Amino acid sequence: MKIEKFVTATDDNDLYYQFCGFTSQNMKNKFGQNCEIVIAYITDRDESDERYKRICEFATVVKIDPIPEIEIGIQAKVSRLWLASQSDSPCAIIDVDWFALNKDFFLNCFDKCKEGTLGAIGSNAFSGTRDEGKFPMNMVHGHNETFKKIINPKNLQYKDLLLSWNCNRFDGKENVFNHFNKFSDESLLRKLVHDCGMENQIIHNHMPSHRPYGFSSRIDRFNWNYDLEKMRSGYYIDSQPLRPINDNLGTLSPLLEYLNLEVDKYYIK
Question: What pTM did the predictor assign?
Fold first, then answer.
């Protein structure tokens, strides 16, 4: 499967929106300058606002008003599911605060995903943990028809769809009305997959060098330590960089240079 659309989301939290330029350009650098980045921007800012206009320089922005009943951080997370269900072509869901490093690894995963299946990457990080059975939301990929079947089979409007995700099934973290720290979009996706009977149509791609909830093949903000030579050789698959990115540009400089991401071009204040 060829993926040329990547969907993500942000709100006005500086942990996330500051990445929009860097992450969008990194995906184009890795997967082609013609690939489309679509960002659901959960905000009450006007479209004339400078931040809004700046984010629009890097991606197709879908502006969405906050839903008062749902914490805005949760709304941003699950709006990625909505975007995937509305896509007119195969796509992948990505975290806005994430960088792909080893393009070939991901292209190989995309190739395994056939019509009627959903591709997932990194579920082995949950093996032997209380979250076994889930898989990371980042880089979930598939045909647009598959996303619609799983996420929005009744063809509900945006707000109605989100408000319908109001019950739990496996671990109590699926309900969008939960507190942010008690919610997991990965739990919600597992429930949606279960509800449409597609558990056996998930193509699991394991990340190398896994450990519980992580990978040594990832440059990870929770243990910021990596080898430059290993990075140049393609050992690292991806990175979850330090946040907020604007406060860590000095530390991130070697990684940004390796990814050809010039700070002046992609900085959002």
Answer: 0.97
